[in-house]
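=== Structure Prediction Worksheet ===
Name of assembly: unnamed complex
Input type: mixed (protein and possibly other molecules)
Chain count: two
Listed entries:
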Amino acid sequence: MITALERFRVIDLSETVAGQFCCRLMADYGASVTLIEPAEGSALRCQAPMAMSGDSLVFRHLNHGKILHRLRSGATSSELAELAAEADLAVVPAGFDADAIRSVNGDCVIVEVSDFGTDGPYKDWQGGEMIVQALSGMMNNNGEAGRPPLFGTGQRAAYAAGLAAYISAIALLLARDKGGATRHASVDVAETAAAMSFPYVLQHAYNGTDRRRGDQEIPAGQVLCRGTWVCIWVYPFRFSAMCRTLGLECLIDDPRFAEPVTRTRNWAALFDEIQEALVDRDAEEVVRHLQDAQVIAACAYRSSELAQNPHLEARGFWETVRMEGAEVQVLGRPFRMSRAPQQLATEDEPGARKVAG
Amino acid sequence: MSRPLEGLRVIELTTAWAGPMAGRILAWLGADVTHVESPTRTNSWRQNKGEPSPVCYPDLDPGARKYDRTFLFNSQNLNKRSLVIDLKKPEGLAAMRALICASDVLLCNFRGGMLKRLGLDHATLSEDNPGLIVVEMPAYGLEGPHSSYAALGPTMEMAAGMSAMISYPGGKPTVTGPSYMDPIGGFNAAAAVLTALVSRNATGLGQHVEVPQVEAAMQLIGPELLAAAEQGSEPVPDGNRVAHACPHDCYPTAGEDEWIALAVETDAQWQALARQMQRPDLARDDSLRHLTGRKAAIARIDQALADWTRGQDKHALAARLQAAGVPAAPVNTPRDLAASPYLRARGFFSTVTHPLAGTHPYPGLPFHLGPAPADRPAPCFGADNAHLLSEVLGMDAATIARLHAARVIADTPDAEA
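=== Predicted Assembly ===
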């Protein structure tokens, strides 16, 4: 078992993607985490996508490795007090009555996670991924000039806020060890999203420019090989190497592409040429040849392709855990620690994992 | 207030965004973080190669030391020191090794294997410094068939399965802005350092931590990956449209390239939106009452919405819709962000004076652990060489001057480094 955080007890009252992700990371690295669900079950149990069994894959992803505890119907404050009495950390939603925890356990670190916080001008706004990405400045960057901006995918800002909550929580627990007095932190998904946006707001502060989509294209492009898109990054000093690797030596002295300035101007034409040459090529092979020639490239994997990806398989990325009486597949931990090797544990133990396959 | 990581020394061998952001988080939490560069290889975000792009600099002017004046480097290296040292010179490598041995954390986001080649890997250095924590951030991990592949944010987003989920209808995979993977890697690496610190408090021992950035980022789309793994297929991306809400898109507003995002997740929100549009016909239309019907009629709804939003102010309209219970937001540009009432109320910006770039409001981090001390500006190139060599390694002034003359340490980069 992973032991880094084994001395911490955590209660997860968050009822959000961000909060439950924060607590799952705690469980990943050895903390004893109890998910406290309302009597009717966590609302996240109803969130799509669903497994073929009908169970929520969001709930599975966020809560494997935790002890699942349902409050009794009409739960009294004494039930929560009992659970909170020994906790080092409680992760709670905005507006949670912290006194319910403080009154029994003044030493508990409390991290509050929500979209917009409990004060400020948007405290009554409704969030969600596209809303926070629009506000963050990220959406304005994403997509093609002349077309609508794109928000991205999934609930990435919420997960990132879960990481921010994890960082906040561990920082306060470390400070507590040294006698620090602060026991409370708050994390907003909307602010996390803004902190992850490319710092064009500082560019604006430096010189007043207001960056828009397509103003400054990255030196990269995508081509469709046999069934899979490949992204190729063309640094000026690797242009010739790329052309030779792809059998496109004729482009090296082509006046449209010979100099970086003209190449940028004719970027679409360059990628038309590359596309024509690669249409029937195997994507993995193209990427391997380009990487061998020190040209940065990658396959744009579809999510179904990642399930059988040989690289991830060789690394033992996919794992099987036991959750609510069933063996289910989950993703491996986000980082690997040398002093906490992944080991098999007894199947009944929360957090027991084995590498798939 | 004393901050959680005060007393902790971090050495950062990083470049661009992901690694420096991890160090910036640790510095914000109180660690003494030194960003290390070479005279022959500057941090790429110092923009020291090629013709300077005016938009990177205060008042569009690169100035005499352009590498100290770019908003890119200066955004991610607040509260740090700068050491510029040539690891290809034996004395430089020896000083670096001594510095790491006097530190708590080494953070590295260069390609896997670099630390080992330099003899700066955890296995080697932990003999002298058993408490040392070494965190590496290789894109694809230290082992596996793709571990030698080089990567940048956009190619990592492709490899993580995200880009194929983001596309205009029928279009090609899209990257999120210039690079969305870097701040994700930054958060993950900071989390890794903190986790290893908890372990060290209990055992007294440091360790080697690997943050494979692609795998770590896959957590952010975990449910979608699990669904595809189980079912063997995935939804086809369709712009901003999603399965659980409709309409869910952005619509043009007054001004050039100005937009409002609307996310109608419930039937009640649809009714509220129709009322705000003063379109009782839409509100009464039974075919639009539920999600399935609205999806079937999305072309008609999109047209009605765009006709209504076009010409309206995105900020005022979003506030009005939110007040009416409809999730909506302006698609903010950098200028809008600078004026955001929410971010201002949150204390997101801090005003910092940089000796060569002037005084500006800097975007912050989403951590609120009590009152924070004032931020210090990103360091100028090599600004802390003498301090580190004398205060940490105990070198005398004559030795430091000799190393400077031999360009083992430097405060200007080699040409085009």
